[in-house]
Amino acid sequence: MNRKRIYSRRLVFAVLLVLTVPTLFVGVAIGPVHIPISDTLSYLVGQGVSVDGSPSVSRLIISQIRLPRVLLGLLVGCALAISGGTMQGLFRNPLASPYVLGIASGASTGASLVILLNLRGALFLPLGALTGGLLAAGIVYRLGQERSKKTSVYTLILAGVAVGALFSAVTSFTIFLCSGSEKVTDVIFWTMGGLGRANWTYVYVLTPIVVLGSVILIAFSRDLNALSLGEEEAFHLGIDPEMSKRIMLGVATLLTSSAVAFAGTIGFVGLIIPHIMRLIIGPDHRYLLPATAIAGAVFLVWADMLARTVASPAEMPVGIITAFLGAPFFLYLLKKKGARM
Amino acid sequence: MEITVEGLKFSYNGSPLLDGIDLIVTGGEVLVIVGPNGSGKTTLLRNISGILSPEVGSVYLDMTRLPELSITELARYLAVVEQEREIGFDFTVREVVALGRLPHRGRFARETRTDREWIGRAMELTNVAPFAERSIRELSGGEKQRVFLAMALAQNPRVLLLDEPTTYLDINHQIQIMDIVRQQAAAGLTVLMAIHDLNLAAQYADRVAILHRGRLLAVGKPADVLTEANIKEAFQTDVAVGKNPVTNSIYINTVPKELKTPTSLAKLHIICGGGSGVAVLHSLADRFSLSVGVVSPLDSDFQAAQHLGAKLVTEAPFASISTRAYEENVATMRSSDGVVICETPFGPGNLLNLRAALELASKTSIYILNPEGIEKRDYTGGHATKLIRRLVESGAVPVHDVWDLKRRLVSGYHNTDCGMDRQSDSSKERALKAPRR
In B137-273, which ranges are E strands? Predict the structure, then answer.
């Protein structure tokens, strides 16, 4: 059977890029508070000059709440998806996710400690989560080093499971110690993931990390292609497998940890999006990684919009939406493609 | 480009795997390393490909020591094809072949026209172009190996290392791979490969090296290296080495461990060839001690006889029966209790088998399968037909088919249940010397 790709790569990228514009617009326009579309448009296009010249409530909602939230969604979705795509390539396993190195559990531990110890300050929570995530990934990476200074991906996966379990236990234990406190609810909501804390500081901090990280990963996408054949085969193709692995693991870890630090552990984006894009444009990582980055960004903004409106005025954690959308689709793929996964 | 291996030693966990290897492979040459499992073939190739570094000694590509080359430089000179393996993702054939251009391209560079030309050429050479857009995972083993060979060739290497590239392939795909490799060597590529199949090595190698316990037992032309003594030493196996007069290459046949014939069985000599003896041999093997001759080792009857442990009188393939083989055949027949002539096509090459039978017609009983059909199998202008008629006239027994033959042979014995535990010589006489019509 000839497997001709139905969609040309250019078409896919065109569609993805075109999609980001309405995504941005809809993300800003829709929310629990009704804001006329004309106001939204005038804010986005006219850069803050509202019709009557005064700073209206609508303007404040858009500029201080919705716009940073949409931008954070784009950044986090991009970071998680491209890290997931990279991890799947590195581990030669389509079931790998950005969280294989135990980052989610580590970040949860860090975040829960910050919340339960009642440390206040704008960046304490993200810093706590970041520290936890990097610590977990660092331990896993250390365990994955063999005596010969080489990194075994199999040991990494197993160490990731074990270290993740350990950090989850620490989180559960701290929650148990603080049971009865309102803060426990905060911790649980944090672990479900969400963009509700979005503000401009988060966007400013995350933007350079995500942009730079994505560029580096895309630059290494050809190494990822060679590594798909195996590490020795990559060596014979002129790739230093150890160096490539280290750089990509490091960058993906940093991207994931940063995303988790600002948005909690949002599941499925990093697992499902690379997978869907691989089905659409094929496994060549030079195209797969950029496509995955854009698709992840767009997907998370739409999921967040649903999270804000489905149970309005209450807000659902976006992790629930991504899981609700992602899990069934994933099962569908699993059944349909069978062994090909 | 020349590969030079100098005093190479390598050990794993303290036990030496390679113990002082010196070897030079020159441009345009195919050097095949053979050796039993665990002799260090793969370790040697991995030391040369740069995956492993020798503990003592060096590997040079032309005049450059391997560690002085960067990984990318090395990949521009040297490509590797290994045993069949699985690929993580659903790459198309073309995408895999295109990976061969990686060492020639910068990190951000796109595919150039030169790249596309090399990819196209490699796919043409290995005949994978017809399925360029198919997924690598859907291919058969032979197709997959050709894709990996195409990837290696797209690298435009000066040296090609192959580690048992044909192990899991059928004979047709083995030959396809070997032919492509030979062709590339003729264009100047230096080829070093490890393979298991000694006959493939003999047929395709310019030189063969036998690796045994981490040392090179012998290096040189196939005929000089693949000798019975060397193979016995390296593989602990008895083989018969012959020469194929057509391709002028040697061939190696294993000799079964238990060739000794049980004395309690009556001896039957079978004249066959061209596969006409396979069914007869199989149906008689349990009750008789068989000998076969004269056949060539490329004949399926030879293989059947060898498989059943029959004594063999052989002649080189496609050659006429020599005096030596003729006399050996007659001697074997003389010591037999009977002779069976199968429905063999007779030509000038094997006509002497019938003459040998005629020589002994008065001394032993002869059974001829379907003598009426000889004219259709006679490619000697009537000589074979004449000989068969004379055999029948002088008392040979015509039989219809294998079952008829077996019934006649066995009916002469009282105790047929336990093979040929003959009661008396007279019963044997009855069965073999004076069979009832």
Answer: 159-163, 190-194, 207-212, 215-220, 239-243, 250-254, 266-271
- Quick: pLDDT tens for B172-222: 888 888 999 999 999 999 999 999 889 889 889 999 999 998 899 999 999
**B50–A235: do the CB atoms touch at under 8 Å?**
yes
* CA–CA separation, B237 and B215 (whole Å): 19
User: Rounded to whole angstroms, how far apart are CA atoms B23 and B124?
Assistant: 33
Using pLDDT thresholds of 50, 70 and 90, give the confidence band for residue A339: very low
User: Residues of B157-189 as b/e, b for ≥16 C-beta within 10 angstroms?
Assistant: bbbbbbbbbbeebeeebbebbbebbbebbeeeb
**CB-based contact A238 B71, cutoff 8 Å:** yes
pLDDT given at position A3: 44
Residues B219, B293 share a domain: no
Distance from CA of A13 to the nearest CA of B (A): 17
Q: Kindly report the CATH number assigned to the domain that includes residue B222.
A: 3.40.50.300
Instruction: Give just the sign of the alpha carbon dihedral B418, B420, B422, B426.
Output: positive
- Of the candidates A3, A220, A240, which has its C-beta nearest B133's C-beta? A3
Q: Which residues pair with B397 in a beta bridge?
A: B367
Tell me the percentage of chain B whose pLDDT exceeds 90.
40
CB contact under 8 A, A94 and B95: no
| Closest by Cβ to A2, choosing from B85, B134, B155 | B134
Strand order in the sheet with B15-25: B15-25, B3-12, B56-61, B64-65
Cα torsion angle, B383, B386, B388, B390, sign: negative
pLDDT in the model for residue B101 = 94
Same domain, B275 and B170: no
Is the per-residue pLDDT at A35 higher than 90? no
- CA terminus-to-terminus distance, chain A: 18
Nearest CA distance, B103 vs chain A (angstrom): 5
Domain A9-340, CATH among 3.30.565.10, 1.10.3470.10, 3.40.50.720, 1.20.120.450: 1.10.3470.10
In this prediction the ipTM stands at 0.84
pTM (two decimals): 0.73
Q: ∠ CA(B298), CA(B300), CA(B303), 5° rounding?
A: 85
pLDDT score, position B429: 42
Is B224 an 8 Å CB contact of chain A?
A: no
